Amino acid sequence: MQLTTHAKNFTISDKLMGIIQKKLEKIQVYFDDASSGTIVCSRIGKTEKMEITINQKGRLFRAEASSSNMYANIDLALAKIEKQIIKHRDKLRTIIKDEARDSKKFAFYTKLPNVAPAEIMRQKSFTIEKLSVEEAEIALDTSDHSFYVYANAGGKICVMYRRTDGHVGIIEVANSKIII
């Protein structure tokens, strides 16, 4: 697995990097050599946060963990990724290795975790409006939701969302174009 690391207000020591690589080997059984991973380590106040994203054949597996100890975050985040794989392993037949999909041995679990499928509780439809970033932020603030879907000036679908730090983020769908 090709691995990229980033640090924000945090220094990744050689010892931590060695442990990250050793622990990643445990879940590498699910992925082939063409997979890639990104790890972001950050510190916000006294809280240390680790975000792990693994790209396997275009499918993203992502988890984050926050605690006062970055070493504990490794196990927490990798366990979340393994649970995602276990939960969807029948649907991921073309993504994960056959021998890993059929295995009863897990890297971070001693037995199969309870992974009940999510139930769709509500479905909505709405029209997308073409808005500027400022107008979308006003719409987000007045909607009492944590996200707002709109079309930007170029006609691309965007999702503006409220971040945990109080700021907003924007996700722009790269291959979208709508006519309004």
Features:
single chain; 180 residues; alpha+beta; Double Stranded RNA Binding Domain; SHC Adaptor Protein; 2 domains; 4-stranded mixed sheet; 3-stranded antiparallel sheet; 27% helix
Folded structure, characterized:
By secondary structure, this protein is of the alpha+beta class. The chain is built from 4 helices and 7 strands. Strand 1, helix 1 (14-27) and strand 2 form a beta-alpha-beta unit. The longest helix is centred in the middle third of the chain and has 19 residues, at 70-88.
Give a short overview:
The chain is α+β, with helices and mostly antiparallel strands and 180 residues long.
How many helical stretches?
Answer: 4
Which strand order spans the largest sheet, edge to edge or round the barrel? 1-2-3-4
Number of domains: 2
Average residue pLDDT: 84
CATH class of the largest domain: Alpha Beta
- Measured between the Cα atoms of the first and last residue, the distance is 43 Å
User: Structural class of the secondary elements?
Assistant: alpha+beta
SSE string, helix = H, strand = E?
A: EHEEEHHHEEE
Shape: globular
Largest sheet entry:
4 strands, mixed
**Number of E strands:** 7
- Measured by DSSP, the beta-strand proportion falls in 25-35%
The CATH topology of the largest domain turns out to be Double Stranded RNA Binding Domain
Alpha carbon gyration radius? 19 Å
| CATH-derived architecture of the largest domain | 2-Layer Sandwich
Within CATH, the superfamily of the largest domain carries the name Ribosome hibernation promotion factor-like
Uncertain runs are none
